[in-house]
Amino acid sequence: QQQVKQSPQSLIVQKGGIPIINCAYENTAFDYFPWYQQFPGKGPALLIAIRPDVSEKKEGRFTISFNKSAKQFSLHIMDSQPGDSATYFCAARKMDSSYKLIFGSGTRLLVRP
Amino acid sequence: SQTIHQWPATLVQPVGSPLSLECTVEGTSNPNLYWYRQAAGRGLQLLFYSVGIGQISSEVPQNLSASRPQDRQFILSSKKLLLSDSGFYLCAWSVKGYEQYFGPGTRLTVT
Predict the structure, then answer these.
(1) Would you state the pLDDT for residue A42?
(2) pLDDT-derived band of residue A94, with 50, 70 and 90 as boundaries?
């Protein structure tokens, strides 16, 4: 089945906190797992991505943890800031010529000052 | 560097009118192209994708169609808009096997 389940639907943290967003997938024919950040009225922007042969990837304050056996991956935002308030989408890419992304339903993050 | 353009940025159209949204990509060749729709406060729904000129795959049967008349041009059309066609339309591109990038989007309101 081609689904990516994302949780939580919304998340509120204080500035400096570490919000964690989780995703799980059911199809093993995925080869790439990106995260996108979307601000209101804007197109999603690629934030960070990981391939299944790596268990963790860090870029600045953003970290992806990947558990291949559990078919789960998560986004951690270190030292969160009010400017991180946005909607975050996880995705999984199909291993065929379409290179389609299967998106999670999104998480609305609010970082309070 | 590569850039992606969408126009118009916003559009208000009456029910039953036609639609044409355009997306162009610069700085790359033979990209995969994608059209998504996002309802207010919702997720991303893939509508169409194209792996080459004239090659269109539809993901969701609906009132819309897509065309790719040139390598870096992707058009989303409708002959008669419905209220349910309102939403935020996003075009995206990727070089085959690499990251997918989104355009700025078109906000469509059908009245």
Answers:
(1) 95
(2) confident
How many domains would you assign to chain A? 1
Q: Which domain holds residue A29?
A: 4-112
Question: Do residues B48 and B90 lie in contact, with contact meaning Cβ atoms separated by under 8 Å?
Answer: no
Structure confidence at residue A1 (pLDDT): 54
- State the sign of the Cα–Cα–Cα–Cα dihedral B76, B80, B81, B84: negative
Give whole-number Cα distances, B68 to A81, B10, B73, B79, in Å.
41, 22, 6, 17
- Superfamily grouping for domain B3-101: Immunoglobulins (2.60.40.10)
Q: Which residues of A fall within a CB distance of 8 Å from B57?
A: 98
> Using the beta-carbon criterion (under 8 Å), do B97 and A99 form an inter-chain contact?
yes
Percent of chain B having pLDDT more than 90? Answer: 84
CB contact under 8 A, B94 and A99: yes
Please report, for chain B, the start and end positions of each structural domain, with discontinuous segments joined by +: 3-101
CB proximity list for A10: less than 8 A, separation 6 or greater: A107, A108, A109, A110
The whole-number pLDDT of residue B61 equals 67
Q: Are B21 and B9 in contact (CB under 8 A)?
A: no
Chain A residue whose CA is closest to B89:
A43
Average pLDDT over residues B36-48: 90
CB pairs under 8 A between A and B: 48
Each residue of A46-76: pLDDT tens digit?
A: 999 999 899 999 999 999 999 999 999 999 9
Q: Residue A9 is part of a domain; what is its CATH number?
A: 2.60.40.10
